[in-house]
Design goal:
Layout lengths: L9 E4 L9 H12 L8 E5 L5 E7 L4 E7 L11 E3 L2 E3 L1 E3 L1 H9 L35
Parallel strand pairs: 1-2
Antiparallel strand pairs: 1-7, 2-3, 3-4, 5-6
Length: about 140
């Protein structure tokens, strides 16, 4: 079981990846394909071509770590590959979606109860300076 901070973002490279890649190869994929900073402390998920092997790439303040899981039976249920204007677009998922993916639960068919979800400031959600109205004294 992972204990992840709510500030950790999880990015999924839904495009199949060569699972022979190690630290340097995954570092390059994070920069070039996912377009994120590998040193940010976020989790980056990569899937094998067969769909039964997953690697999680993560920086933990003093070095990189790779976690891997290979299924004996079955396949991981990843989000569909997404293209925007003909270019590959990575997908960001929530912590609960990561746990369901690792446990073999199809998150698309799971029924979610309504919950409060405050968007982070850097994503331009509620509470973001660019969305707040400025009060002017009269």
């Amino acid at each position: 079981m992972f204990n992840l901070s709510p500030t950790v973002r999880i990015f999924v490279c839904t495009k199949p990846t060569d699972m022979r890649k190690s630290f340097n190869g995954l570092f390059a994929l994070v920069q070039n394909m996912i377009k994120q900073d590998p040193f940010a402390g976020h989790l980056f998920l990569f899937r094998g071509r067969q769909g039964d092997f997953i690697k999680i790439f993560w920086f933990d303040q003093d070095g990189f770590a790779i976690f891997a899981k290979k299924l004996e039976v079955g396949k991981f249920r990843f989000p569909d590959v997404r293209f925007v204007d003909g270019k590959y677009e990575p997908i960001e998922i929530k912590r609960a979606d990561l746990m369901m993916l690792l446990e073999g639960i199809d998150s698309g068919s799971a029924k979610r109860q309504k919950r409060y979800d405050r968007k982070s400031r850097d994503q331009g959600g509620i509470g973001s300076p660019k969305n707040e109205k400025t009060l002017v004294p009269v």
